[in-house]
Amino acid sequence: MIVIIDYKMGNIKSLENALDFLGCKSCVTNKAEIILSADKIILPGVGAFDLAMKNLQKLNLIETLNQAVFEENIPILGICLGMQILADTGEENGPTDGLGWINGSVRHFSFSDSKLRIPHVGFNSIRFENKSPNLFNGLANGADFYFVHSYHMICERDSDVSSWTNYGEKFVSSVQKGNIFGVQFHPEKSQSNGLTILKNFISFHGGDIKC
After folding, report:
1. Is 154 inside any structural domain?
2. pTM score, whole prediction
3. Is residue 179 in a domain?
4. For residue 19, which of 32, 28, 29 has the smallest C-alpha distance?
5. Would you give the end-to-end CA distance of the chain in angstroms?
6. Residue 132 belongs to what domain range?
7. Among 6, 18, 99, 205, whose CB has the most other CB atoms within 10 angstroms?
8. Which residue among 16, 80, 149, 152 is the active-site one?
9. 120 is annotated as an active-site residue
10. Does residue 208 fall inside a structural domain?
């Protein structure tokens, strides 16, 4: 079963619809016992970094997620804000500690070209790193995805970066570290390319797309 974490920050319905389209059963929850029994976990997110972390703490989800990922080795996919809070820190509304799973920080875009709009909204192409990330199996380099964000992750280790995108500057558009995955874009709003991302995540370590 795919568990979608409900921490009051996600664009959950669109994600549920995408998984339903793929024939995959999902459960939206913040209950520890269900999260720890999941085959895969998705951490969605729309909103502010500081509020996301406050909500996770208020719901006692940080310890549960750490146990799920590091003790139970359950694969997890962070989407948009859900990817950003994988980092050590974020600067939105003041410095805030993240989950600390991906070493790095999340910072606001700052462009010298005043014509570039913030937030970055719309479809944009991504470029894979030299390795062949599981999430992008079956996709061509330069495939495009739908973005909506004003902040971006800066990783300390290049080895954690699985793709980049250019918008005013080169920024991290996805990360991968063992069973931890993150995408800055929204696969649930990225048409066939996004569905491929979700299929690949579900199939990671032998998962069944029919769930």
Report:
1. yes
2. 0.95
3. yes
4. 28
5. 6
6. 2-203
7. 99
8. 80
9. no
10. no
